[in-house]
From TrEMBL:
It comes from the Bacteria. Residues 1-36, 77-96 are annotated as: Disordered. Residues 8-18, 26-35 have a biased composition (Basic and acidic residues). This is Uncharacterized protein.
Amino acid sequence: MLATPAMADHHGGGHDDDNANQQRAEVIERDDRGRATRVRMNGQEYAVCTQNEQDSCINPREAGLNFGNRALGYWPGRPASQIDGPLPAERSGSSD
């Protein structure tokens, strides 16, 4: 029996900023600049990922916040850790 990998349900192909179904987290802690550092979603508390905190945290945009990285709508050909410099949000030119 073969199993297929599970895929998150946010792969609609575009940015989620305008998605009415996107759930917003309740901000429960902010830093000195007023930026959310802890949120509550579905009864669970999460640290908000930052440049210095990237493990055991929630991506700000996944929490409905208006900062942080945006997911690419395409596979850039190799992992981000192997790519120097930023990638465009949308694929340009060539097809798959």
